[in-house]
Specification:
Blueprint lengths: L33 H14 L12 H8 L3 H14 L2 E4 L3 E4 L32 H13 L22 H14 L10 H14 L9 E4 L2 H12 L5 E6 L3 H9 L3 E8 L2 E2 L12 E4 L13 H14 L2 E5 L15 H4 L5 E6 L11 E4 L2 H14 L8 H9 L2 H27 L4 E3 L7 E6 L9 H10 L5 E2 L14 E4 L5 H18 L3
Parallel strand pairs: 4-5, 4-7, 7-8, 8-9
Antiparallel strand pairs: 1-2, 3-10, 5-6, 9-10, 11-12, 12-14, 13-14
Length: about 525
């Protein structure tokens, strides 16, 4: 039961449970009694929002210790603020700042004995580096602030509603109970061994645990490889369109990324033109990101021949390789490589949970030693939390079962998105099926508002809770790119897809003035 406003504040929690030490300025009104100065200082801190509404204050004993005064002095100050309505006292929850203050429009300067406050100085002009400016420009093209709750139609999100949380939680508990080993710069040896066995069985990538290293993501992997294998200023080939983060990671490592147009057969090395002096290429051959094409065998063999002749390296990002819904998946480049030029990259975050932040590289035999030594020296190692549990998850067969289940689930969700686009956005969006992956590409149809660009469309959709991404943002020259929307479906329950498409169509028509 709450005590009356005039009642003595309730002390139930000592410091450590009841709040951090407060820093109060007691210099104002030095001639006034200490309890008045303490009350005035607390009042100012509340009005200036340095103490949040609803925040629990330290106990009176702890506060008296911090201020170097008697507890009774602190209690008198707190009682006055409770009486004025700045604090509340409840049994069991201590003394807190009131959720609603006596006068929310009260200026800080009107607080008793408040010191005059100078206006905050203007911050200096923000000067970013050329690299920082490029990063801001690229990220602004791709990402918009959409509400977190809706999953329609965010990219890169797996079907979280299908993840076996209970099983993984049990494995985590077992791992922690048994005493997880300290982080290893190359990754938990058990996870490296489990990954090697998993790739050999499911992707035809024959490797040993020594060739596998665990990383925190493709961009960390690219920065490491670029710094180790190439010199600053050298050229690296990237796909156009392609994920902007790839080019940015290479540029951060001092390389010069050069875009190569991607056609229906994937990246064709003969279209690289004058950039054939490059010594690195980053490709997504199994399922091109974002268009969804599979690289043809002809282009695969030509790329491998180029790498051998140029003494170059290929990073094969097997994005979406696990998810294919029609036909047999093409073999990875790594499986065709006979000269040790392909570095295979994959991610568990895309097939399990993004929060895992666990990816991996499979290195050619001659490269494993240098990369391992570089990682051991430079780090940082990815978090060891979860690596042992993930190794158990793979070894016990849970990953295989999860992939079989989610392949069917994703296929059904893709079909639902295609049907909803046909029934509820006909003429507005042209959405074609893809054989794999976790998203579809929606092209403008004949009824798409002519003056609505895809970046503006994404911004409007974000306000409606739809997390689409502009296709043009994935091109090296967005201004000359064909517009479109990337719609992730893997994380969207089937029942939610049709209503989301309806909301998307309504929003697009309104944004175009139609």
């Amino acid at each position: 039961m709450p005590e009356a406003h005039g009642a003595r504040p309730v002390e139930t929690h000592p410091r450590g449970e009841g709040g951090l030490p407060l820093v109060l300025d007691l210099a104002h009104g030095a001639a006034t009694p200490l309890h008045v100065r303490i009350g005035d200082a607390l009042r100012r801190a509340i009005l200036e929002r340095r103490i949040a509404r609803g925040a629990r204050l330290p106990g009176s004993r702890a506060l008296a210790e911090d201020l170097g005064c008697a507890r009774g002095t602190v209690l008198t100050a707190l009682e006055q603020l409770v009486a004025e309505g700045y604090l509340t006292a409840h049994r069991g929850s201590g003394t807190r700042v009131a959720a609603t203050l006596p006068d929310d429009t009260l200026a800080v300067a009107k607080a008793p004995d408040a010191a005059p406050t100078a206006s905050a100085p203007s911050p200096p002009p923000l000067a970013l580096s050329r690299r920082g400016t490029a990063l801001m420009a690229s990220s602004a093209r791709v990402w918009f602030s959409a509400p977190v709750a809706p999953d329609a139609f965010a990219l890169g999100r797996p079907a979280a509603d299908a993840f076996p949380y209970a099983i993984f939680g049990r494995l985590l508990q077992t791992e922690w109970r048994d005493g997880a080993p300290p982080p290893h710069p190359l990754g938990d040896p058990r996870l490296r061994a489990a990954t090697a066995a998993y790739l050999a069985a499911t992707r035809g990538v024959a490797c040993t645990a020594d060739a596998v290293i665990v990383t925190a993501g493709i961009r960390q992997s690219l920065r490491l490889l670029a710094q180790l294998l190439l010199d600053p200023g050298e050229t690296a080939l990237v796909e156009d369109p392609g994920f902007p983060g790839i080019a940015l990671a290479l540029a951060e490592a001092g390389l010069r990324p050069v875009p190569v147009p991607v056609g229906p057969g994937g990246l064709a090395i003969d279209r690289a033109g004058a950039a054939l002096g490059a010594r690195l290429a980053v490709v997504t051959p199994a399922h091109h990101y974002p268009l969804g094409h599979a690289m043809s065998l002809e282009n695969r063999l030509a790329l491998l021949a180029w790498a051998e002749a140029a003494n170059a390296w290929i990073v094969e990002d097997d994005y979406g390789g696990e998810y294919r819904y029609a036909g047999r998946p093409p073999p990875p480049l790594r499986a065709l490589d006979r000269t040790g030029r392909v570095i295979y990259a994959g991610s568990f975050s895309k097939v399990l949970l993004p929060a895992l932040q666990l990816s991996y590289l499979v290195l050619p035999q001659g490269l494993a030693g240098p990369v391992q030594r570089a990682l051991a020296e430079t780090g940082p190692a990815p978090s060891g939390l979860g690596q042992g549990a993930l190794a158990r998850f793979i070894d016990e067969g849970h990953l295989g079962r999860h992939l079989r289940r989610t392949r069917k689930l994703h296929a059904g969700r893709q079909a639902a998105l295609l049907a909803a686009a046909r029934d509820r956005a006909a003429g507005l969006l042209d959405v074609a099926p893809l054989e794999g992956g976790m998203h579809l590409v929606a092209r403008p149809g004949p009824d798409w508002p002519s003056r609505l660009g895809d970046v503006a469309a994404v911004a409007a959709l974000a306000q409606a809770g739809i997390a689409a991404v502009a296709l043009s943002a994935y091109h090296a020259d967005p201004g000359n790119a064909a517009p479109g929307l990337l719609l992730g479906y893997a994380a969207v329950p089937e029942r939610a897809i049709a209503p989301a498409v309806t909301r998307m169509a309504t929003t697009l028509r309104a944004a175009g003035g139609g």
